Amino acid sequence: MALDPRINAFRPDLAAKHLQGQVEALHFVDGERRQVIEPIADLRREPAHEAALDTQALFGEQVTVYETSDEGWCWGQLETDGYVGYLSANALGPIGPPPTHRVCVPRTFGFPGPDIKLPPMIALPMGAMLQIVKQTERFALDGYGWHFPLTHLMPLAQQQPDFVAAAESLLGAPYLWGGKSSLGIDCSGLVQISLQAAGQPCQRDTYMQEHALGAVSPLNGLKRGDLVFWKGHVAIARDAATLIHANAHAMMVAIEPVAEALARIKASGSDVSSVRRI
């Protein structure tokens, strides 16, 4: 079976060393591990700012870089979900100390001191990872000296008990193909970020999610947390009657009655392909 280039680092001219013997390429390299140092780093299909956005990497994520061009693009693979593409070299830095915490709210600010009246130095999205070196009653201090509201962070060892609640916290976020934050998110990005908040590894693409997550369940017995798939899309059941999903119909993360969603997709010539229970 041919390897999927979305999650396997190979091109005709260059490929990851561990793929030698599985793919053809002129050169094979080991790659260098780097870390995302910007709040959000776009991963694009080609080395150009106008190229298609396939996904995003968040602050603290690690990337194996196989090539850095003179034009400032890195071609590499995300450690979190294996996606391969091009990121700005400016978005990556050396590997830092292991992260200890994850942002558990849609967005948080890092202040230069323990005072919310100070101008923030950085804004991090849900899912961003950082190392906390000190905690006070209200703030968590990271290695850069930024102070984050303690209630906005969660230790990596701790998990949100309800991934649907994590998705609901992003209600109203604008729809963005390839997006993974409250500034813009797509359907599979919403599922991935929400499940990761609950400690559940999750693939990035809808097709991958449908074939890897949970067990098949009947549509007429929807329960909270069921994933409902149809062509090119995934929604999360809030209960038996409503779904929450990032969709191009509303152009945002929205709650929609199940009956209305089913009628709408049938009218477009599609249908539910499966329901998966986590």
Gist of the model:
The protein has 278 residues and is mainly beta. Helix content is 12%, strand content 37%. It contains four helices and 25 strands.
Essential attributes:
mainly beta, five-stranded antiparallel β-sheet, 4 helices, 25 strands, 37% strand, globular
| Spatial gap, N to C terminus | 27 Å
- Unreliable residue runs: none
Strand content: 35-45%
Give the fraction of residues assigned to helices. Answer: 10-25%
| Helix/sheet category | mainly beta
SSE order, one letter for each helix or strand: EEEEEEEEEEEEEEEEEHEEHHEEEEEHE
Helical stretch tally? 4
> How many β-strand stretches?
25
Mean pLDDT over all positions: 97
- Widest beta sheet: strand line-up: 20-25-21-22-23-24
Major β-sheet profile = 6 strands, antiparallel
Oligomer: single chain
- Radius of gyration (CA) equals 20 Å
Write the layout of secondary structure elements.
Layout: E1 14-16, E2 27-29, E3 32-36, E4 40-44, E5 53-58, E6 62-68, E7 73-78, E8 84-88, E9 92-93, E10 101-103, E11 107-110, E12 122-125, E13 129-130, E14 132-135, E15 139-142, E16 147-149, E17 153-155, H1 163-168, E18 180-181, E19 184-185, H2 187-197, H3 206-212, E20 215-216, E21 227-230, E22 233-237, E23 242-247, E24 252-257, H4 258-267, E25 272-277
Parallel strand pairs: 1-2
Antiparallel strand pairs: 3-6, 3-9, 4-5, 6-7, 7-8, 10-13, 10-17, 11-12, 14-15, 15-16, 18-19, 20-25, 21-22, 21-25, 22-23, 23-24
